[in-house]
Amino acid sequence: MQHYDIIIIGTGAGGGTILHKLKNSGKKILVLERGTFMPQEKENWDTDEVFRKERYHTKEVWKTEDDKELHPGTGYWVGGNTKVYGAALFRLREKDFEKIQHADGISIEWPISYRDIEPYYNEAEKLYQVHGKMGLDPTEPYRSEEYAFPEVSHEPRIQELHNNLTEKGLHPFYIPLGVKLNEADAIRSKCIRCNTCDGFPCLLHAKSDADINCVRPAIDNDTVTLLTNAKVIKLNTNNSGNEIVSVDVEVVTELHQFSADIFILSAGAINSAVLLLKSANSSHPNGLANKSSQVGRNFMKHNSTAMIGVSTKPNPTVFQKTLAVNDFYWGDDEFKFPMGHIQLLGKSNKGQISGDAPFFTPGFVLGEMVTHSIDWWMTGEDLADPENRVQVINDEIHLDYKENNTEGFERMIKKLKDILYSIDSGHSFIPHSFYLTKNIPLAAVGHQCGTARFGIDEITSVLDINCRTHEINNLYVVDGSFFPSSGAVNPSLTIIANALRIGEHILERIK
Fold first, then answer.
1. How many angstroms separate the CA atoms of 422 and 425, rounded?
2. pLDDT-derived band of residue 446, with 50, 70 and 90 as boundaries?
3. Can you tell me the distance from the alpha carbon of 483 to that of 299, in angstroms, rounded to the nearest whole number?
4. Cis status of the peptide bond prior to 441, with omega within 30 of 0
5. Which of left, alpha, beta for 131 (phi over 0: left; psi -120 to 50: alpha)?
6. What one-character DSSP code corresponds to residue 381?
7. pLDDT for 221-261, tens place per residue?
8. Are 12 and 266 in contact (CB under 8 A)?
């Protein structure tokens, strides 16, 4: 059996980033990724292949309520779901770390404060080359420094929208985007501001993802070994159950076993919970680190809606995902509870909206709709509910989820519609299901978090404040699993920043 100092399971926002942090430690590191490198191919930018045929999604079938089939909108690649994310990299608000009263209940306080993670947000934004501008978002948390990369500029139609929203008393701001863009020197810019960024893999490797920014640079190090097509099927403990001693891994079709001193589980909130549950043994009969019975519980994925607003004004924008609005994040004068977050999506093309329009809609009408449309994405906080959970039943993944905390979210959507109507009375709206895949809303698990929350109390949490399991001394979970609450912005940057934080803790541990 080969022995390593550290084994990392998964290469997404959590696993890829913590690998970056640990790569120069001098320790022997094995990285296990169940997928392969995503092919760099023309299909990366093919709408039909990416969305309709779901070329880069897993073919796995999970189960949900009443044993219904669930086709998850997730994929297994080096870099995880960052390969196809929109690269919108937001910080949680300061109050998101505190106990907050919502219309439907309470989101609990985190065991760390925003100030504890703020330095790692800075580090994360530099590592993922996040472009933004401070001082515009009214809910913006404290920042100790300006973004290292300038904001991604609005194209003329979006700048006009920005001006219209400002005239209505709102405070639109630039989306913080992780792209390799140099607007001052286009010749040296990897990013070309194309219309195939949000939801697509980047054919040019110009999107800041965990693969390109973290994994590929790390595997040049002689102490780092990456195994692809390596699916971990079980974590094995010692006889007393307080340490992991080895992992069972299917490498292509062969079973292998590897040992290490420290294990980092970064398979994503759903699959990390699955692996902990599948690794049950006599010391941990309900699953590893599950004395609290919280493993798999408190799954969150956000209340999310994609919407196409068709206006009388043409929209020739190519790179549209540059503007966001947080004026309703904490509510308004009429509704004193949090509502959520608004941002633009990447610009739709005719192929993407054809599935949302009536089947008899002529092609030229679809073309006109695309020419005049602006695409929106709304996110609201869903509350942690122990009955929203991941389970393993008869060796199958079961994901049970019931929506909650939707009133404020629905109010926000109506407010946005009313505002857009007031700007242009010719507005009409259709849902944009392409971004939500099948089995809406549950299959859209791109924002998955919870399932192994961190905390001080071992009775109510799975991990301690350093994301080490309470019960197993050498096992860390470093992905979206640790979230006690979901906030209402994309979770990726918080996962990345936390991975840097935990990586620093592990570096101190292994000195």
1. 6
2. confident
3. 9
4. yes
5. beta
6. P
7. 999 999 999 999 999 999 999 999 999 999 988 999 999 99
8. yes
